[in-house]
């Protein structure tokens, strides 16, 4: 994570794109229910973009080790 920028700065964030779920039918599917969650909000942030695009995308990043991040 420690890229130095939170996920709100898209040009500096890491990204997960074109996510697919592999189930027992051997068909790759776009996940139906996707949400973003960060349990250490002082350490990193995650942002989900799913409006106006076909595939959900996660952007994530954070400042890395700091006094507020255990």
Spatial shape: elongated
Low-confidence stretches: none
Q: Main sheet?
A: 3 strands, antiparallel
Structural class: mainly beta
Tell me the Rg in angstroms.
14 Å
**Roughly what percent helix?**
under 10%
Q: Could you report the average pLDDT, rounded to the nearest whole number? A: 76
Distance between the termini: 14 Å
Structure description:
The chain has 70 residues and is mainly beta. The protein has one domain (10-61). The chain contains no helices and 5 strands. It has a 3-stranded antiparallel β-sheet, with no helix packed on it. Strands 2-3 form a two-stranded antiparallel ribbon.
Strand and helix map with partners:
Elements: E1 14-16, E2 21-22, E3 28-29, E4 45-49, E5 57-61
Antiparallel strand pairs: 1-5, 2-3, 4-5
Can you summarize this structure?
This protein is an all-beta fold. The chain is 0% helix and 24% strand. It has one domain (10-61).
List descriptors.
70 residues; mainly beta; single chain; Neprosin; Neprosin PEP catalytic domain-containing protein; 24% strand
């Amino acid at each position: 994570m420690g890229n130095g920028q939170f996920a709100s700065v898209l040009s500096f964030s890491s990204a997960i794109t074109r996510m697919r779920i592999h189930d027992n039918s051997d068909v790759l599917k776009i996940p139906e229910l996707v949400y973003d969650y960060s349990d250490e909000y002082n350490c990193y942030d995650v942002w989900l973009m799913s409006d106006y695009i076909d595939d959900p995308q996660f952007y994530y990043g954070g400042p890395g080790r700091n006094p507020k991040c255990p």
